[in-house]
Design brief:
Structural class: mainly alpha
Order of helices and strands: HHH
Distance between the termini: 31 Å
Number of strands: 0
Mean pLDDT: 85
Low-confidence stretches: none
Length: 60
């Protein structure tokens, strides 16, 4: 659908987050970005995966 590779999107967003933005639960976002780069899931779904992996690793 989009012409920009997911790995490139992930790299740009990661760079911005590391340099210019203060966020809570940064590890959740990083895990979400890692998932986004390697799957075809929507970004919001990837954030949910990141949250699950980081905040509730033993739930499922």
């Amino acid at each position: 659908m989009y012409q920009v590779p997911r790995q490139e999107i992930t790299a740009v967003i990661s760079g911005v987050l590391m340099e210019d933005v203060a966020v809570t639960n940064a590890t959740v976002i990083i895990k979400g970005l890692e998932t986004f780069a390697t799957t075809t899931l929507d970004f919001v779904d990837c954030l949910m995966v990141g949250y699950q992996k980081e905040e509730r690793p033993n739930r499922f």
